[in-house]
Design goal:
Helix content of chain A: 10-25%
Oligomer: heterodimer
Largest interface: A-B, 43 and 42 residues
Order of helices and strands of chain A: HEEEEEHEEHEHEEHEHEEEHE
Largest sheet of chain A: 7 strands, mixed
Strand content of chain A: 25-35%
Largest sheet of chain B: 8 strands, parallel
Structural class of chain A: alpha/beta
Shape of chain B: globular
Helix content of chain B: 25-40%
Number of helices of chain A: 7
Order of helices and strands of chain B: EEEHHEEEHEHEHHEHEEEHEHEHHH
Radius of gyration of chain B: 18 Å
Number of strands of chain B: 14
Strand order of the largest sheet of chain B: 3-14-13-10-9-8-7-4
Strand order of the largest sheet of chain A: 10-9-8-7-11-12-15
Distance between the termini of chain B: 33 Å
Chain lengths: 275, 307
C-alpha cells in the first residue's frame, strides 16, 4: 500500500495507551454504546479501531479473564468534540466487563489503529452492508459520505434491530422476520446490485455474511471493501495473531486492515474474535 | 536513567529492560504510532523477531487463545527470510535509537551458521540471539532440548563470530540449567530465558484443537513463577549474564528477576496490553532505585557466582 493511500486511511495513534473517562453509557436493544472523553487523540478515520480495557477489574475476578484488551471499531468520533464512541454486545468476558462501565469510570485506550475505508474510486454510489454489531464502523463512514450512502442492515431479530438507530436511512432485514425483510441482508444487497446503478460496497458483519458479500461482489465485478475481525492481542502489529489469508499471503488485520479489498481475500470466513 | 545503566556483553544500556523476541515489531509499531516511537523507545535494546534462512508464512489462523492470566500463541515464526530481512527489515531496525540484537533460528546447524555469518558481517547488529527453543515449530525443540545439542551447535557457530552470542533457553527441556551450563561451556556470551511453555486449547464445544498450529506457547502473568524458578536454577549454574523474562508486568516483577540473578529483563506479552510497557517497567525500576531499593540487587558482588 502506498504511503499516500495509507495516509488518507490511517490516523496515527498517540504513542502507548492512555486512561480515558467514560462520559455516557446507553443501550439499543442488546447493544451497548459508550462515549469516551479522549482529548489527546487526533480524529480517527472511519474503519479504524482501538484497543480497550477497563482501568479497574480487568481480569483477576470471578471469571479470571479478560486478560488482553479488546479490539473495537469506533462507532463515531463527532467532529469538534473530544469524544469517541464504541458500540458492542456482551458476548464474552471482555465485552461483558466493558458493558458494565458507567459514566465516570475509566478505561485504557490505545489507537486509532489500522487502515479504514477508502471512498469509491469513481466517486459513485456507496452501499453500506452491516450485520449485527458489525454496523459500528459503517456509522462513522455514513456520517462522512453523507446520507446518499445507503445502508442495508441485518440483525437476528427486532430486538437486535434496535441497534439500527445509530445509523441514518437504513433498510432492515431480520433472520426471524420480526422487523424489515424476513431473511438475510445479503438478499437485500443482491436486489440492489442487480437493480442497475453501479456501486462500491462497504461491509462489516459476521464472517458468513462477509463471505457471501465477497462472493456476490466478485461474481458481479463490484468493488467491495470488507472490515474484518480477528482475535487480537495487541492491535499494533506486535503479536502477529490476527492474520487473514490474502492473495499475497497472510496479512495482519491490525496493520494492513481491518478494512481490506474483497478482491484481495481468498476467503472472508475467518475464525472471528471470540470476545 | 544513570542509576539503571547496565553493562551487557560489552554494550552499555540505559536501563536493563529489553523486549522478548517476537513480542514487539518495531517496524509495525512505527506504522501505527509514527516517529514518536523513536523519540521515546520503550526498550534499552531491541531484540528482533526470529529470522530464518528461508521466508516463512507462519501458521494458519487462529493463532491466539486467551488464558486467565496470559495467552497461547501459535504464530509459527513468520518472517521474510535472511535475504528479505537484510534488504527490508535491517535498514529500518538500524534507525532505532538502541542497539539491535538479531534473533535467528535454523532447521539445521548449518543454517544457523549461515545466519550467524551473515549477521556477523553487519555492523548494525550488536549481538545475535540463537533461538533453540521455539516450541511452535516441530524441529525448533531439538537444538535446545539437550546439553549435547547446544554444545554441538555452538561448536559450529562460536568460531564464526566475535559478536556476543546469546542462547535462548526453552523451559520445555528436561533440565534447562544443564543446557545453560552447556551453552556457557561451549562459548555462549549470555543466555536468555524463558521462551514460552507448550500449551493447547480446544475449540469451544469440540475436541478439536483451536490453534492452527495445534499447540502453541504459553506466556503472560501465569508463567511468572515458572520463569523465576528456572532463572534461579540457571543462575546457580552459570556466570555469563542472563536475560530473564516471563510474565513481567511491573517494576516489582523486573526487580524480582534482577534479584534472582538476571542482568537484563525482557518484557513480552505485557507489551500487547500496554505498548509502552517496557518504558513503564523501566520507570518503575528507576523509582525503586531512587528509593535505594535496587542497590543491593544491582551490585554484581551480591549475585550468586557458581563455585
Amino acid at each position: 500500500m502506498s504511503a499516500v493511500a495509507e495516509g488518507s486511511r490511517r490516523t496515527l495513534a498517540p504513542l502507548g495507551r492512555r486512561r480515558v473517562s467514560v462520559t455516557r453509557r446507553c443501550s439499543y436493544g442488546p447493544y451497548v454504546v459508550i462515549h469516551c472523553h479522549d482529548e489527546s487523540a487526533p480524529a480517527p478515520r472511519p474503519g479504524q479501531f482501538y484497543m480497550l480495557a477497563s482501568a479497574e477489574r480487568w481480569g483477576g475476578g470471578e471469571g479470571e479473564r479478560p486478560y488482553l484488551p479488546r479490539a473495537l471499531s469506533f462507532l463515531r468520533a463527532p467532529a469538534g468534540t473530544d469524544e469517541v464512541h464504541f458500540f458492542f454486545e456482551d458476548v464474552g468476558p471482555g465485552t461483558a466487563r466493558l458493558s458494565e462501565l458507567e459514566a465516570g469510570e475509566e478505561l485504557w485506550l490505545a489507537g486509532p489503529f489500522g487502515v479504514g475505508f477508502a471512498p469509491p474510486s469513481d466517486g459513485g454510489r456507496a452501499l453500506l452492508v452491516g450485520g449485527g454489531v458489525g454496523i459500528a464502523p459503517l456509522a462513522a463512514w455514513q456520517d462522512e459520505l453523507g446520507l446518499d450512502a445507503d445502508a442495508l442492515l441485518g440483525f437476528r431479530d427486532a430486538q437486535h434491530a434496535e441497534g439500527a438507530a445509530v445509523m441514518a436511512a437504513a433498510q432492515l432485514a431480520t433472520d426471524d422476520g420480526s422487523a424489515g425483510h424476513h431473511g438475510l441482508v445479503t438478499e437485500l444487497l443482491a436486489a440492489e446490485l442487480d437493480g442497475g446503478e453501479e456501486a462500491t460496497v462497504y461491509a462489516c458483519g459476521p464472517p458468513r455474511m462477509l463471505e457471501a458479500v465477497r462472493v456476490m461482489c466478485s461474481e458481479r465485478a463490484v468493488p467491495a471493501q470488507l472490515a474484518l475481525e480477528s482475535g487480537m492481542a495487541c492491535g499494533f502489529g506486535a503479536c502477529f495473531g490476527c492474520v487473514v489469508a490474502t492473495r499475497e499471503g497472510y496479512k495482519r488485520l491490525c496493520l494492513d486492515g481491518p478494512v481490506l479489498d474483497a478482491a484481495e481475500l481468498l476467503t472472508a470466513l475467518t475464525p472471528g474474535a471470540g470476545h | 536513567m544513570p542509576a539503571l545503566r547496565t553493562e551487557f556483553c560489552g554494550l552499555t544500556l540505559e536501563h536493563p529492560i529489553v523486549n522478548g523476541s517476537g513480542t514487539f515489531d518495531a517496524i509495525a509499531a512505527r506504522r501505527a504510532f509514527g516517529d514518536a516511537l523513536l523519540e521515546d523507545f520503550p526498550f534499552a535494546a531491541y531484540v528482533s523477531k526470529t529470522v530464518t534462512l528461508e521466508p516463512r508464512q507462519g501458521n494458519a489462523p487462529p493463532r491466539l487463545w486467551e488464558l486467565p492470566a496470559g495467552l497461547i500463541n501459535s504464530i509459527g515464526l513468520p518472517n521474510r527470510g535472511l535475504e528479505g530481512y537484510l534488504e527490508h527489515d535491517l535498514p529500518r531496525l538500524a534507525e532505532l535509537p538502541v542497539p539491535l540484537i538479531v534473533n535467528v533460528m535454523g532447521f539445521t546447524r548449518e543454517e544457523v551458521a549461515t545466519l550467524v555469518e551473515a549477521f556477523t558481517a553487519r555492523e548494525e547488529v550488536a549481538a545475535i540471539e540463537l533461538n533453540v527453543s521455539c516450541p511452535n515449530v516441530k524441529t525448533g525443540l531439538l537444538m535446545g532440548a539437550e546439553p549435547a545439542e547446544v554444545s554441538g551447535l555452538l561448536d559450529l557457530v562460536r568460531p564464526l563470530t566475535r559478536k556476543p552470542l546469546i542462547v535462548k533457553l526453552t523451559p520445555n527441556a528436561t533440565n534447562p540449567a544443564a543446557v545453560a551450563q552447556a551453552a556457557q561451556d561451549a562459548g555462549a556470551d549470555a543466555v536468555s530465558l524463558i521462551n514460552t511453555l507448550r500449551g493447547m486449547a480446544l475449540r469451544p464445544g469440540s475436541s478439536e484443537p483451536w490453534l492452527g498450529g495445534r499447540t502453541g506457547g504459553v506466556s503472560g502473568a501465569g508463567v511468572r513463577g515458572v520463569a523465576l524458578a528456572l532463572l534461579d536454577s540457571v543462575a546457580q549454574r552459570v556466570s555469563v549474564p542472563i536475560i530473564a523474562m516471563g510474565g513481567v508486568q511491573s517494576g516489582a516483577d523486573a526487580a524480582a528477576l534482577l534479584g534472582a540473578g538476571a542482568r537484563l529483563v525482557a518484557v513480552g506479552t505485557e507489551s500487547f496490553r500496554d505498548p509502552m510497557a517496557g518504558r513503564r517497567v523501566a520507570g518503575e525500576l528507576e523509582e525503586r532505585a531512587e528509593k535505594g531499593q535496587l542497590s543491593a540487587i544491582l551490585t554484581p558482588a551480591s549475585r550468586k557466582i557458581p563455585a
